[in-house]
Amino acid sequence: MANHAIPHHPGLIGTGPGQAVRRDGDASGERAGSGAATPAAGARVRRSHPGGHAGWLIAPATLWLFVFLLVPLASIFVFSFFTSTGHGMAPEPTIKNYVDYFEVEGFFDPEARKFLKPSVFLSTLGTTFRFALTVMALCLLVGYPIAYFLALQVQAFKWQLALFLLCMVPFWTSYLIRAVAWLPMLGRRGLLNRALVELGIVEKPVSFLLYSEFGYTMALVQLYVVLCVGPIFFSLAKIDRQILEAARDMGASAFQIFREIIVPLSLPGVAIGMIFIFVMLMGEFASAVVVYGGKISTVGTVILNYYTFANYPFAAVNALMLMVAMMIGVIVILRVVDIRKQL
Amino acid sequence: MSDKSLHRRGRTRRQFLGDSAKITAAGALAGGFPHIARGNDGIRTIGLAVSIINEIQGKASEDLGFSIRGQALGYGAMVGKMLNQNDQYEVAEGYFNDMDVMIPSKVWQPIDTQRIPEWEKVTDLAKTGRLTPESKPGQGDAPFRHLWLDADGNRVEGPSRYISMLPGWHNADSLGYNPEETGRPIESWAELFSEDFAGQVALLNAPQIGVMDAALGVEGLGIFQFGDKGNMTREEIDFLIDFLIEKKEAGHFRAFWETFGQSVNLMLNGEVVLESMWSPAVTAIKAEGVPCVYAFPKEGMRGWHGGCAISARAEGAALDQAYEYLNWWLDGWAGAFVARQGYYMSVPDNVQKHLEPEEWDYWYAGKPAAKELPDPYGTIIVPEGEVRDGGSYWDRFSNIAVWNSLMDENDYLVERWTEFLNA
Fold first, then answer.
1. Residue B279's domain spans which residues?
2. ipTM
3. pLDDT tens digit string along B288-302?
4. Are the CB atoms for B236 and B416 separated by under 8 Å?
5. Residue A289 to residue B101, Cβ atoms within 8 A
6. Do B76 and A121 touch (CB under 8 A)?
7. Smallest Cα–Cα separation from A228: which of A135, A116, A343, A115?
8. Which residues of A touch B255 (CB under 8 A)?
9. Tens digits of residue pLDDT in A182-201
């Protein structure tokens, strides 16, 4: 109960419980009575805003978000109920767009070819989801060891920093260049194929490397893995080495230490990293064109195809459903790992 | 001007205001900002990079004495801006296949041909669909089907005094192939589906155009006949997409390209041997030393036609300047500029005046190049003795199988195309 007193206190301003900001420092009495978990949080929050006018500080951001995020979002929501006229839209409310999005002709008809098949738009979303999950798992598999090495194996801080910056090098070039760079690597006449042929592993160049699910997944992992290395690295670096020593002294094996201490303490970083990657992947459409050769459709291309010839309401429905899917994904991740408790 | 026509114009504008109120917020969605006051010096024009080129609008500004600011956009952004922000341009360099969206929305004003002194010189390709008396008009959104309007901007059977867009640059697309890899000349769209090239074929990833090339291929195979490839029925779309899905699942397609550069790289890198292609891409590939031929399929080519339209919001001095700019396009200089990139112009007689005889013979007459020829920027791209693929202008445009089109069933087409990509 006491925990809830802090976020909802009128003296606190914030858009969510996690972002509670204290306006003044006079609530110490209340804090004393607010249970074990909050003093730390209160102290941290107060330190970052020493008695300032926090309300004014967030005003520009609030205004910005209102004008350029909430208003457009609200219009997209409203447009999604408009009627498409073939050359624009008319403000005649309809739910037809949503029906079209979900419904498939002959869905309940056992005779029909499309019996119990999800609509094209749902399956596009599903494909995107499937790729997102695969790539997230691979990113974790690749990224976690990197972060672990940086945070716990490298002892000197300056080396940690140097190696971490090295990890970031690919981010110094544009996203598109990093995607395009896969073409000379994976192509039929690419570096990899040439090596395979020279080494006598294959007789003639293989084509499954590029414009394939394999190449696409590889590229996505490379493009996004750093997004999870950062947060995991910071979570791991925060672990008090003395705890690990204590565990060792008490006879815990290396694996036990990893499983019982390191993994739980790094979960917030994992969750944040996974959220970053998930959100980016759901909106991804450029590398599908470049690396997958457009052989897959993404929600982005669907929206563009309907937008191009002025079916704005249906483009709006697709945009909203993508957002809903993203939100569900983020909520699920946050359910699995309670970041606030962990931090 | 009579009272009647003033009244009409007023009504059109009010109608438009109604429309624009509905979509004001859509403008914000599309990234537009509130109307920025502009100086009364000159006009703004928007379009694709095919016609919006610094050199062209720069030369026009120089010749006409007022500034013409061009903005080149991607296809989706271009159509979006043309439809939703017609206060942000005076001239729209659009395409006849978008007319089913543009004419009913009344975002453009009818162009009065009496203000186009060279109108008589514009060829019959755009006016009747027949460049020569023997030529076939072709299916789909041929310019002449969307050209003629009444003074209110409603479609009429032509010819009439008012037009939707002043016909300009155009071309006919087909397949590009690497003759060393295919081992035989490509003379039919059916080759797109030949087993010999399985896994080495690419299509253009735009549903409206991709299905057109595929439909030509299916007809070439002789397994299906479309009533009108430019306006397919749901059943026809179903047949075609089911066929394509089967092919895709068998791994027939290497990729679907979206940009000019992608289509060039696919062939340069040996990923494909045959693909739907735009003619300047063939030139670009040959310039890199890779053999590439532009096919001239016996079924005919797929045509497209651009031109200049005027925003319904343009009035007063800006409207006069817009007309001046349109007339400047017909003078021939711009036509000669785009000719060196392989595009044709609706007034070949005037273009000829601005081309050297050797250039005219190569680009329009289909004769071997009598000397090395440059692109618009002076780089030599045509070696002496080369003959342009596809024959003369008149050969090419006498045999248009179908024009790029926007079908009535476009939404259904996009849905099924999405399914095809996901297969």
1. 173-302+391-422
2. 0.80
3. 889 999 999 999 999
4. no
5. no
6. no
7. A135
8. 211, 293-295
9. 999 999 999 999 999 999 99
